[in-house]
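=== RUN LOG ===
request id: a7f3
mode: sequence -> structure
chains: 1
length: 476
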Amino acid sequence: MTAEPSNLAAATSSALVDEPVYGDRVVAVEEADIEPIPLAERHGNPRQLLWTWASPNLEFATVFVGVIGVLFFQLSFWQAAFALAAGSALGGLTQGILSVWGPADGVPQMVLGRAAFGYWGNVIPSALMSIGAGIGWFAVNSVSGTFALNTLTHLPKGLCLVIIVSVQVVAAFFGHNFVHVFERYAFPFLAVVFALASISVFTHAHLGTAGGGGGVAGFVTTFGAAFGYAAGWNPYASDYTRYLKPDVSKVAVALYSGLGIFLSCAILEIVGAASMTISGAANSTGSPTDTFVAAMPTVIAKLALIGIAVGAVSANVLNIYSGAIASIAMGIKLPFSSRRAVTALVFGAVGLVVAFLGLSDAGSKYENFLLVMAYWIAPWLGVVLVDRWMRAKPSFGPVLQDATYANWAGPIAMVVAMVVSISLFSDQTQFSGFIYRNHPGLGDLTFEVGFLLAGGLYYGLVKVMRPTSRVIDLTV
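=== RESULT ===
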């Protein structure tokens, strides 16, 4: 099933003598979207990936993953802490692996997915990604930022939402370099603010008093929620490494990407779990952000609210940017050159409406959304990881841009795994899987089953349903 390896250097040799058009300029609209980045445009250092992936998680949405482990899934603090750390570690590991793939071919993650899903079969994960990132996650983070700004300024929530969304859209509109720089400058402020907030939370927490009745089901579901949150960034991974030079250190790329995800997610999620052990927190009727800062000294509480707003923007800059890229990776032809930038504006407008509708009952809506995200990402991961493992050569070459290339083993494996895992093991407000309804003590195993089933199915199917192309020789 291996494709004829490409020679990226040969394919872009002319770029070696050309002056870069975009280069490392920050205040410039990036016009590249899903095409391979020429060698003349390659720049950057793997170290930048640490803050690019840490900053977006230094926000309240991350904190709330830990909150639901204690508040909704009834775990003790220590049970929740272990489940949260383990789920974040797995999501960080896969983030590191996928990030390494970007520099070789210079294309975004959803385009790399065409190798496993085929050109048109890749529409399925690309559509899920564009909706989940550009609209779903965008709305979730905009809501948390809105609550923080509303509490801080007492401005109407609708106006706060417009302010938050406007800043996010502007940053994503400029593109890759602006995104990296934004995250770099946001990182030290967010790190200091949330360090102070964390100290305050643990000072007031009573770690031995919470929960403990969640059992295996609560632990498994919390683990899945933490993995779903961390792995929610996996379909974005190569979007932010494709400008790195092909000979960049793979170890450095994987290490900085994985640590950025793991440390930020695990630490703040554990802080969120601890916040639910503060007296009265579990019974609070205020907004989630109000509850989080309630026990903090006034100065730290105000800084935390600013941090929550800035963190929401940091996360959504990536969500709009990568969501726009994923929509273009679906193969939709748009009649203008700056299609990525324009698409980012469209996602911002749609996300604004969805976020406005999510201002009420944000807690339960967020819990459901978080688990649903893991439901599709886990099967997608199973397919792309097994596909890469089975290939003799690491570079996919021309198949990524070949509209005649088909690999139906990928879409079939992913869809079947999603249907089976969700219908049997899911635990949602509106729907519970057959096995979960009859054995709720198992917890929500949808992501674990989806991942393993999709990978196993793909391994077997691709040996029978071999990839095909009308214009490229796929033999070796």
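=== NOTES ===
The CA atoms of residues 203 and 272 lie 13 Å apart.
Residues 2-17 have pLDDT under 50 and may be disordered.
=== END ===
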